[in-house]
Amino acid sequence: MADDRIKKGLALANSMFGEVGGAKRFEAATDFTRPLNDFAVGTCFGEVWQRPGLDHKTRSMLTIAMLTALGQQPQLRVHVRGALSNGVTKEEIREILVHAIIYCGLPKAVDAFTTAAEVLDTKPA
């Protein structure tokens, strides 16, 4: 794990998703899944999420919107949790999803609201 991008990526993933979604998931990679983990941690969280143009809160908000548009509920669930860690409020998440009704369509927004509600209702205080 000498790659600086992976170190930065793991630090961010740990802060957003906890060790279970960060370091422990990375360590659990197999020979088969390692290329995906290296790319996700190193490129996504170690490089793109580290760029100076947007803060982590804004990137989380954009990620929620994009995952809603794509209908990617499992990833949306993970990133709603991460968004909370990055300072996005429950109210801001709701407004992103209300906005998605218009631009992504009602069925995708309904799915996203359902997924987000599951996370927000179970998130410890």
Characteristics:
2 domains; mainly alpha; AhpD-like; 125 residues; 7 helices
Brief summary of the model shown:
With 125 residues, the protein is an all-alpha fold.
Give the overall form.
Answer: globular
The total beta strand count reads: 0
Largest sheet: none
Give helix % range. Answer: over 70%
The figure for the number of domains is 2
CATH architecture of the largest domain: Up-down Bundle
Radius of gyration: 15 Å
Can you identify the CATH class of the largest domain?
A: Mainly Alpha
Write the CATH fold name of the largest domain: AhpD-like
- Assembly state of the chains shown: single chain
**Class by SSE composition:** mainly alpha
- Number of helical runs? 7
Q: What proportion strand?
A: under 5%
What is the topological layout?
Blueprint: H1 4-21, H2 23-27, H3 34-45, H4 56-70, H5 73-85, H6 90-104, H7 106-122
Helix pairs in contact: 1-3, 1-5, 4-5, 4-6, 5-7, 6-7
Question: How would you describe the overall organization of this protein?
Answer:
The chain is mainly alpha-helical. The chain folds into two domains: 47 residues, no CATH class; 67 residues, Up-down Bundle (AhpD-like). The protein is 76% helix and 0% strand. The longest helix has 18 residues.
